[in-house]
Specification:
This protein has 173 residues and is α+β, with helices and mostly antiparallel strands. 20% of the residues lie in helices and 32% in strands. It is globular.
Length: 173
């Protein structure tokens, strides 16, 4: 797994690929769409969003273990002795044409946050980190990509311009 971790020290995030992500992503997409839009665009995310603690599905449990194992492997590799065992919250997101996420950061009580890409294309809106860099850092989503970053980092998603779904799971630990 360590060979799949690409550490971006200058930009303060981890980019990790889930091996053979097709099966997991198919299950995640089904589970996300089966819940309905719970938040009705009343958060910073102006897109379809599931409940905050979406752990009733096995697909979310599998992803949760991958996130925690990836983070702990990186920390052990980097000789940092903080590890975690639990995801505090996680939710599914579906962006359609016209959807976006306003600039925001996650709650201070969290140390790290993550975004995992279930379904995207080259035309999907990027994740943009808006602070902590000399300029904005854009990350183009790819299926199976996991981004882990400090929860205090401000980020946003510009308006989805194309009629293609951009599906992800986000969370905190």
């Amino acid at each position: 797994m360590l060979s799949e971790i690409f550490i971006k020290r200058k930009v303060n995030y981890l980019n990790i690929s889930y091996p053979n992500h097709e099966n997991l992503n198919q299950k995640l997409e089904y589970d996300i769409k089966s819940t309905g839009d719970i938040t009705n665009r009343q958060t910073y995310v102006k897109a379809y969003m599931t409940d905050w603690m979406e752990t009733r599905f096995k697909s979310f449990e599998i992803l949760s273990r991958f996130v925690i194992n990836s983070y702990n492997s990186y920390m052990a590799h980097d000789n940092v002795f903080y590890s975690t065992k639990d995801i505090k919250d996680m939710w599914g997101l579906v962006y359609n044409k016209g959807d976006y996420a306003e600039e925001h950061q996650h709650e201070i009580r969290n140390l790290y946050s993550f975004i995992y890409y279930v379904k995207s294309s080259k035309r999907s809106s990027p994740l943009i980190f808006t602070d902590g860099f000399p300029f904005h850092k854009k990350i183009q989503p790819e299926n199976g990509m996991l981004i882990i970053f400090p929860s205090y980092m401000k980020h946003k998603v510009p308006v989805q311009k194309h009629n293609e779904e951009r599906i992800s799971v986000a969370g905190n630990f």
